[in-house]
Amino acid sequence: MLWIVRREARRFVGQRGRLIAALVRPLVWLLVFAAGFRAALGLSITPPYQTYVTYEIYIVPGLCGMILLFNGMQSSLGLVHDREMGSMRLLLTSPLPRGWLLLSKLVASTLISILQVYAFLAVAALFGITLPWLGYVAVLPALFAAGLMLGALGLALSSTVRQLENFAGVMNFVIFPMFFMSSALYPLWKMAEASALLRDICAANPFTHAVELIRFALYAEANWSALGWTGLAAAVFLGLALWGYDPARGLVRRGV
Hints:
Blueprint: H1 2-14, H2 16-40, H3 55-85, H4 87-92, H5 98-126, H6 133-158, H7 164-180, H8 188-194, H9 196-204, H10 206-217, H11 224-244
Helix pairs in contact: 1-5, 2-3, 2-5, 3-5, 3-6, 3-7, 3-10, 5-6, 6-10, 6-11, 8-9, 10-11
């Protein structure tokens, strides 16, 4: 695990554009789109907020989740590449437990994602979007849990892909529906005004629970329901990934 974590860290340090790209997406939403949506999406006082908040404050947890989601998928994209021609191909054919290798990859990508989230929060603070100081510490376990869940989803998806080119299409069918059909950009009660069915779909979205877990943690509050659903989704996705990468039964048995 330490070797894989160090390898992912070196790869991340060597790819400076990766950090910039990870920051550009949420910052565009925070600084550009939020200015236009601020007047259109009035927000009521809902937990964990004790008073009215600006739209920029509301979407910060969702944008943290966006970073975790995109980085989890990007890390899985790298795994598809490594599985075909890189060092991960050798590791997957080694006598080491395949589940431990996948878990190591998952932990490594999650740690990288957390670093990117804190970099985003630091840049947001420079623009005057600050949160309670205790929240910056309390959110760490929530980020780790959400990162594990989203990274496990990426691993499960990568087990279904044989060629690198196909993974981009798979990501588009997963990332954008998960992000936009969640509470990342607008509260669930706002969706219920448009469609009760849409609200129910968003409430069942695992990404919604990950975002709410982060939202409450940023205010040093626990959301046990969100934690439970996030943990359950992580276990399911990791189980699918382990099954998919099992050469005897999984979806890559004709590959590695």
